[in-house]
Amino acid sequence: MKPVLIFQHVACEGPGYLGTYLSARDIPYRIIRVDQGDRIPEGAQHALGLVFMGGPMSVNDPLEWIERELCLIQEAHHQLLPVLGHCVGAQLVSKALGGEVRVNPVSEIGWLPVERKDHGAGRPWLTGLPERFDVFHWHRETFSLPEGAEPILKSPFCENQAFVMGNTLALQCHVEMTSEMVQDWAWRYRDQTAQPSASVQSAEAMTWQLSERIANLQKVADILYGQWIARLPD
User: Fold this and answer.
1) Model pTM greater than 0.85?
2) Structural domain total, the chain
3) What CATH number corresponds to the domain at position 57?
């Protein structure tokens, strides 16, 4: 069986809960460690689906691997191969399919709410989700919607939180988080939370009641990931 290829761009932003989810369903996956120089495939013909994780870089940076991933996303999308992007991964998806990535009015960091945008082709992806729920965020930039994309989530601080387009799902927010990842980021990137605001939580705030928050987030991830894997080829 072909594997899902997961593109990891920095050591601390791996597949997290997505890896657990795929393993529990006997879906093989392989991590492409872009940060360690792993070769990016020339094409998507040997993949069951493509997943792009986050990172501290901008998709507008002049990095050689960014152009290669953009081409791969375009190819996979046109072949109807399921593509999934998290944060920077979602920004890569937007840019590859004709959108733009720019600075958001504010940084969005920590546990903050999103709301459903229930209309059109995006509605089935949201089946089982409440109208409003908390997810984890860590981003300074945002994406625009490519032509033909259907928005499915928004937040008070970022209008475009998620979109679907065919078998492609792009998530600005982080539904892949584990408790260990939240604790690691809270310490590793603590300079970015030194001045908390309405859209930026302190390390203490984002790690409060963490087990409960992660359990709720994984329920959200189960629904979104379930919709995505339902589109994987047999």
Assistant:
1) yes
2) 1
3) 3.40.50.880
